[in-house]
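RETRY 2/3 - previous attempt timed out on the joint model. Re-submitting the same 1066-residue input unchanged.
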Amino acid sequence: MLHDKFLDLTSGPIGRVVTSEESPATAHEFFFWTAETEAAQNLDIGHIVAAESEDATAVAVLDDPRRYSDLQSFLDDFYAYDGDPSLEALSERVEILVFRARVLATKHRDDRKKSKRPVRTGPVFFATNAAIEFALGTDDFSGHRIPMLLHENGNEKNGSPQRTPLYVDEEYLLGPEAGHLNITGMSGLSTKTSHALFTIASTFQTVEDKKVAALMFNVKGADLLFLDKPVEVSAEDDPELAERYEKAGQRGLPAEDREMYESLGIEVRPFENLRVFAPLRYGMESGERIVHAEGIPARKLNTLRRARGEDSCVYPVIWELGDVLPYAGYVFEPSDMDDKFRGFIEELRDRGVRTTADFYALLDEIEDYFEAAREAGKNVSSWNGHNHMTIAKVRNRFKVLPNKCGGLLAHGRVEHGDLPRADGPFEDNEMRVVDISQLTGVPQDLIVTSVISKIWELAETGRLGVDKLIIFVDELNKYAPSGHSRTSSLKDTLVDISARGRHLSLTLFGAQQFRSKVEDEVIGNAATSLYGRIGDEELTNASYRSFSGTTREELLQLEKGRLLLRHAHYAVPVFGRFPRPPVLMGKQGTDIFGEQRGDPASSVLAVMRNLTAKPPAIAAIRSEIAGVPEEQVYEALDAVQAAHRTGHGAADPYKNFRWNLKRPARTGASRRDASKVLSGLDRMRD
Amino acid sequence: MQAGTSVNDFVAKISRALEGAGRKGIHVTSGAGSCDLEAQQFGNHPPEEDEPFPTGRPHHLESPVGSRDLGGHDGTSRLCYFLDGVQSSREIGRIGMSPVIVSTVAATIVNRCGRRFSRMPLESPPLVVQAVILPRSTGDASVEAFWELLLAAGFSELDPDEVPYSPHLVLDSAEYIAEADPSDYVGMRERARGRVRSLRERLEGGLLRRWEGDDRVLEDSEAWIAVDGQLKDIRESNRRAIGLIKSVARPEFVGKDVGMLLDLGPGMRTTSFVPDWQLRRDQGERRTSWYLRMWPPQPGADALGSLMRVEAPRDTEPELIDEISRWILAERAPLAKPDPRWPAMIYPIQYVEKILKPLAQGSERAYARLERQLASNGRN
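RETRY 2/3 succeeded.
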């Protein structure tokens, strides 16, 4: 044997390579019939085996099993059994099970040489971990090995299938050699988001020598809003929380998933640095001339993560008019967007009109101009080249802007201060989620387009704040549809990211149900692709032409948690599984951490738990707030949280809260300033 | 024994003998290419099914003579072992007018357990025997000299009636022919083919003897063996063997009994008998025979189609004949297709043939080397 370590000699030969005139062994595939041993009875599609040529060992993935007999017609069998299916013949007709094995890689006996010679007739063995890792090209990886799936082979070790992580090369996933990941699969069945989360967690834990962050958009319910929460809680550590987990039906990871994590070398832990961004709920905009974003509590945001104590990582997305104007084409009807309308919008931008208040002030100014002209007896029909009808049309259309923008738009100027922004730089291992689940149509598209475009600008100017940023975009067929006639600035940006992103530290993790309906450039630039269950209409598309018939049949009925992986280093795609992500997803998040109907003291406790390692006892809190109006308690609490969100939180947040409580009613701004001062004093003292 | 290795050894020995022949001035002429004797028709029936031409009325063992309805079968059988052999032979050249024939015979017994087959390993005789066949007894000095060279190269002779013990033999095709004509090239080829057949039969006979004495068989008194072809060389004590002759060239019956045979319906048997030609032999060689119709008439077949002649030990009782017949009928599934003889063949026998055929066909590469060596002698 040329490479003992590649062959599972414990299981022994599981078949024999066979060639014929019609089906010779080639450099890229061979056939073998299977033995009748117990080990061989486990053989199935996707398993990996090894066989030898004269000077090399080939490692191959199984495909296309066929069972042959020497009967030439089904009728012969029918007649033999006299049409009686229950008849048990004395002899079993000889049948052989033949697999096609598609060669992943070949290793020459001399490490300095390469070989593509077809295997010759001889025994076939299960491939060992070492063989699989070699075949996946891990020896040639230039970056970190990021586990993406787990391959389970047909041979067993210690009672479990032999498991081998399917690694992808960091430099081919995140750049610069190649980049991007694309996931295809039916909605609800293919676990695209779950796998994206798993891959991001895997990347964060594996690539430790670089700063990596991720951006995702939450489009459904509370799916991605509690990614900082563990999948299970020990009753010993926190009995009350454990009980809430139990009530919500969240029982943690099954043992099998835990074993998979162990095999993959990944820890089961949530994203520690989660930030959620959400727009205001419609009607929550105060109309103030200056809006202090840091003072906007999560309760006013359009998100399901707004319970007190759980909202310290939730930040607003709020824009001035000046942020919306560049996307006028998204907001206004195409029939309204004629050259004159566009021209006036450009005028607004050139004049630096940033806020709605500024806009209306300008319109008043224009109105005064026309009024003065009328009084002077002049026949003036335009201002600055803009016809008064155009201006009237703009005024009319801008009236519904707040409604169209669904809570995104502030009336006045927005002061963000030091508050993190959805389109701002990132921190290491930050998981940034922009919650657009409560929006539809225009505001949803607006946020996605704006955030991605601004982040692209940051990348181009080297201001991302991290070495690598992963952007997950679902529904790529909606945002980057195929066809030249369907274009948008977001599509252009996504195409740009696909083409150049790997050089600018941006990686696109794209997902869609219909790969064939996504722009070719976006798909084609993804060096790594994953396929979950795919519908039959989609599979008939030319995009899947390179898969064998058996692989396509497998994709039609692929179970949850199993995917087909294609990567730059792999000669042939490989099936693998992945465990559930190590985070709380979906409705359980709101069930466990949603708004509780508790007393104010419970809310204070919940907040303090998040802000300090030593929260006060509930009895002490009750005693502290006894006799204080509820509204006052919550105002004091909001001020403490607001200070912490901007990084100016007091060292002792409970002390800060008690100080806020005792002061007479102040405006939100003064309470905030007071908190900042107090935190400053605390720091000086400490 | 690995077939490939054996063929290479066989050819290597012949090659050494040929080198010696060259040195001694014995010219072995190369043919135009290996000539497969089995592919040529020397008679009207396949060689493995040769039977002596029946001359008279058989001795009927049951009366009245006629057909017997077996009433179907219950799907069971006590047939657990199946024996068959295969042969192939080819002419590789000539010494003068004398053909030089090389042959391969193989035989084995398979055991059926739980509906699956496995070869029954026996220490002897060998699974595969290869032989060079020369008409030594014609008196040609060159042939005699070549015979000696073959012995020197490692071939063994075989005594009359001896069971083959060595995998490489040299056989005399003219041994039992008085005053064989050395110029009768066609006749010598025919006799060589007959020698190959008898070699196979001896090999099968040796196997059967071994089976009879095997502990596994002795311990299981219910297990029977079915042999492809006539039941030769069985011990008198062996009451658990049957022979299945699947090609009925000419019926053993005469007169109106032939009509009864031709009209025999599927699933029915004839009354038992001893063939006329066996009556002229020792008692020990007589067998109880009967015909069994396996299937309804098949397209393109004549009235003898689907007929099988079964041989059982002498004095097998009618009740047991019925039971054995039912076992055979139960073997109709699965069909012995795609073998063209399937209507009168049972699947286990077809299986044994299938696993033996590759062994008998030998390595074309090895024989091609031999032909090149002969051709390079320059007397083509």
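The two ends of chain B are 35 Å apart (CA to CA). Closing ticket.
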